[in-house]
Amino acid sequence: MTPKHEKQEFVTVLVRDPRTQKEDSWHSYIDYEIFIHTNSMCFTRKTSCVRRRFREFVWLRQRLQSNAVLIQLPELPSKTPFFNMNNPHHVDHRRQGLQEFLEKILQDALLLSDSRLHLFLQTQLSPEDMEACVSGQTKYSVADAIHKFASLNRRFPIEDEEKKKGKNDAYSDSESSSSGLGPSDDSISCGCKASPASEES
Q1: For the chain, what are the domain ranges?
Q2: With DSSP H G I counted as helix, E B as strand and the rest as coil, what are the percentages for the chain, rounded to 5?
Q3: I need a surface site. Which of 14, 61, 113, 127 has the fewest CB within 10 A?
Q4: Residue 5 burial (CB count, 10 A)
Q5: Are 36 and 47 in contact (CB under 8 A)?
Q6: In Å, how far are 41, 42, 51, 53 from 15, measured between CA atoms?
Q7: Is there a contact between 124 and 33 (Cβ–Cβ < 8 Å)?
Q8: Burial of residue 136 (number of CB atoms within 10 Å: 0-12, 13-18, 19+)
Q9: Residue ranges of region Disordered (predicted)?
Q10: pLDDT top residue among 1 and 152
């Protein structure tokens, strides 16, 4: 017997809260918060929040395209030499373009099967570390990386509580473990509000 009302899968993605980050004394860049809320079985975590910069989106698109050559991927907002990070219209136009890109990506089942996409959306790993993880060159798996980041990012207690109801939370307080997933302090996990400029090279 099938239930009268099948639970329909959804994936909500929001690209928001652009922030200027200092890379060094001379260079700055803008990163964006990516918020995911979903009931899809494709995702390890049902709620997540990370910060990414434009060039990481460029990397993601290149990697997805190389792994799905028969799919025409949506375009990113064009990178123009006239982009001004102090111009709110320019920044918001790029933010909208990045959100539309992710919305289209997340509608494709083949792209959803790519581990890089999940690491991009649900961890703060650098592109180099994401590549190493999916290539099996790390001590941790894709799921380990996502759970580790979630255990450090205490912004969504509801999901954690739901997991505890069903079973003991195997991922809580794992900050002290030497899993090789990066720094264990809160610098990368304060509700997506503190994104260190040293996040990537």
Answers
A1: 11-153
A2: 40, 15, 45
A3: 113
A4: 6
A5: yes
A6: 22, 20, 9, 11
A7: no
A8: exposed
A9: 157-201
A10: 152
CATH superfamily label, 11-153: Phox-like domain (3.30.1520.10)
Compute the distance between CA of residue 177 and CA of residue 95 in angstroms, rounded to an integer: 35
Structure tokens at 131: 């590549």
CA atoms of 59 and 38, how far apart (whole Å): 24
Which one-letter DSSP state was computed for residue 14? E
pLDDT tens digits for range 53-63: 999 999 999 99
Residue 169, CA atoms < 13 Å, CB-side half-sphere: 17
Look at residue 11 and give its three-state secondary structure.
Answer: strand
Of 115, 126, 171, 120, nearest to 144 by C-alpha is: 171
Q: How far is CA 189 from the centre of its chain?
A: 12
Q: How many CB atoms lie within 10 A of CB 171?
A: 17
Q: What is the pTM of this model?
A: 0.75
- Residue of higher predicted confidence among 151 and 131: 131
Residues with Cβ < 8 Å from 121, sequence gap 6 or more? Answer: 13, 34, 36, 48, 50, 102
44: which 2 tokens?
């390890």
